[in-house]
Amino acid sequence: MDHVMVTARLSSGTRRRAVRWRCVSPSCGPARCSAPTTATPPVAWESTRQVIPFQAGGTMDCPDLKEAGKMADNNTTSVTWYNKCKRPPFVGGNRQLRGVSLRVHVMMGPYEGLYFCTVSYQRRGRPLNFTRSINLSAVNSPRLPKIPTILNPAKEQIFTVKQGE
After folding, report:
1. Furthest-apart CA pair in the chain: how many Å?
2. Any idea where the domains of the chain sit in the sequence?
């Protein structure tokens, strides 16, 4: 396996720091990179955080896509999405592509985690690509009750039982 060293600048507010990433799996979608320290995320750019409530829907858009679209030649922009090294269609059918966005129809716990979007476009006849990551989290839905309620038996419903039956 080839190991490629990538130097990246991460912006944290006004502070910039250089991080050296070691790409360990270029065959799995966007190259999986790991820093020699415990630094995350595994791409050379800070992750965008997105929250979708459980049992609700939401749409993920690739960060910096609009800027790439402005620079691209004649609408040559395309987006490829990845989650756990897989491309759509994802298992379960609750996540699907809608144009260049990724739509989550019904948010569930297994859908949490890092999603990668790779934007490809041409500028002045040259192919260009960049990859961004979105850390998707699920939260309690404001529509769902938080206190459990007993549905059966009803409050006034009485069951007569005999011992041993």
Report:
1. 85
2. 1-46, 47-141
CA angle, residues 158, 159, 165, in degrees to nearest 5: 165
Contact present, 82 and 116 (Cβ < 8 Å): yes
What CA–CA distance (Å, rounded) separates 127 from 157?
A: 70
- Alpha helix locations (H) across 84-135? none
CATH code, 47-141: 2.60.40.10
55: three-class secondary structure by DSSP: coil
Read off the tokens for 55: 């049992």
Residue 30 is given by DSSP the state: S
Which of the residue ranges 30-34, 36-40, 62-66, 97-101 would you say has the lowest mean pLDDT?
Answer: 36-40
Q: Looking at the whole model, is its pTM more than 0.85?
A: no
